[in-house]
Specification:
Blueprint (H helix, E strand, L loop, with lengths): L1 E5 L3 H12 L3 E6 L5 H10 L3 E5 H7 L2 E4 L3 H11 L1 H4 L3 E4 L4 E2 L7 E2 L7 H8 L4 E4 L20 E6 L2 H13 L4 E4 L6 H18 L12
């Protein structure tokens, strides 16, 4: 499978490594096809990975992953070309964080809308699945915690798309994936990121994740 990564930050790099590590072809996309950050990821990850523009990565991927900062997401998707993402599974990792008043951030969107829903409305012909937004990038692939593997919560409107994303999560070491329903569930998952951040701010540690206990 070919994966287009939209974004060259820490999340994009972590997931590019993850996909390359399970044998997928990866293209990292940014505004500039010759971006230094994109080229650095290619050099660090090695293997079957390349760099290009947002549009290049969107065309390349059988699936795309949105890893942009929220402020630049709408424009990044325009540059990627909605037509290049139509019909594809889109993994949305974003959180609409507002840092205008410092740390901890606030939600810039919510609670009657969400980043996930806005991306789905923008990419009306794509199949958006919210995932990865409730954990830090060092633990997005092969999450290893003393208390056992954490849970990943996902949501989206298309059952088959969520099945494909679940298979990827399983390959990344997420043995428990909890589907909370349609893309409106992002209204719950994005505030969960704020809880994750708040705990990090209060403790000074950033290696934590969530687990649902069942009985």
């Amino acid at each position: 499978m070919k994966i287009g990564i939209l974004g060259t930050g820490d999340v994009g790099k972590a997931l590019a490594k993850g996909f390359a590590g399970i044998g997928y072809e990866v293209m990292v996309g940014s505004r500039d096809a010759n971006s230094e950050k994109a080229q650095a990821i290619v050099k660090e990850v090695g293997g079957n990975i390349s760099a290009g523009s947002f549009a290049d990565a969107a065309k390349f991927g059988d699936m795309a992953v949105v890893c942009t900062l929220w402020a630049g997401t709408e424009n990044a998707l325009k540059l990627a070309g909605h037509e290049n993402l139509a019909g594809k599974v889109i993994i949305d990792t974003t959180n609409p964080l507002d840092f205008s008043q410092g740390m901890p951030p606030r939600l810039g969107v919510g609670h009657t809308d969400s980043a996930g829903e806005q991306i789905q409305r923008q990419l009306v012909d794509a199949k958006v699945v919210k995932a990865f937004n409730i954990v830090g990038n060092p633990d997005m692939v092969n999450p290893d915690f003393p208390g056992g593997p954490p849970d990943m919560f996902i949501c989206g409107n298309d059952a088959d798309a969520k099945k494909k994303v679940t298979e990827i999560l399983n390959a990344f070491g997420w043995n428990s994936v909890v589907d909370i329903g349609n893309i409106e569930g992002a209204r719950l998952l994005e505030p969960l990121c704020i809880l994750w951040v708040q705990y990090g701010v209060s403790t000074g540690g950033w290696r934590h994740a969530f687990k649902m206990l069942r009985k």
